[in-house]
Amino acid sequence: MLVFGFPRIMIAIFGALILIGTVLSPWLKARSVARTSIPQRPVTRPMLFRILGLGIALCSFFFVAILLFGFVIFMNAWSRWHQYDGASYHRSVFQVTRVYYQTHSRGGPDVFASGTVEGKREWMNLQPYLHTVPQDELDLDWRVPVGTSIPVYVFPDLQGRSRVQVFNGVPPAEANHRTAIAALNYGLGGLALAGGLIVVLVRLRRACYQEPEAAFATT
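Request: output the structure for the sequence above.
Response:
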């Protein structure tokens, strides 16, 4: 992660997760062995037990999905926020001279354009301008024909496509800051909700087991 230039906060979080997993692994393994050695009590409500088990599995899936996707959204916005924070910029117009539609084996297609800004050749990512992904290159050519004028922010001190960003009323630094904070708030709220549901469902599923005294009496 250091070689590929990941943000320090991202490296710290991954390191903490690895450390927590390493510490908890022996305890979880010992607990699993202890559970397998204890005879299981009979289930009094098998249908409810299955429904609650399905609910626990779904909540666990959403918990992991929120954790992964929320973390990725947060880190992307966080990185772009600090990339544009404090950088000088001004408004201008991007004149499209050619559009490009490139597919990759991983992820969606890459759509961008070359053009001129104030007489200089620049490159620009078209995804924020289009809002939706074109179906193919013909669709992209139809939606962004040559000569299209796009209002943009220009960052003279940056390189590549980062220099030109679509104008949407909010500067990129502020927009990405809002996205990062929203991802953090909604992500933590979603994790708390999913985690709380998992705890409640686990407790309800335990109630489906026959009480030890009753189980002993039936034997």
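The two ends are 58 Å apart (CA to CA).
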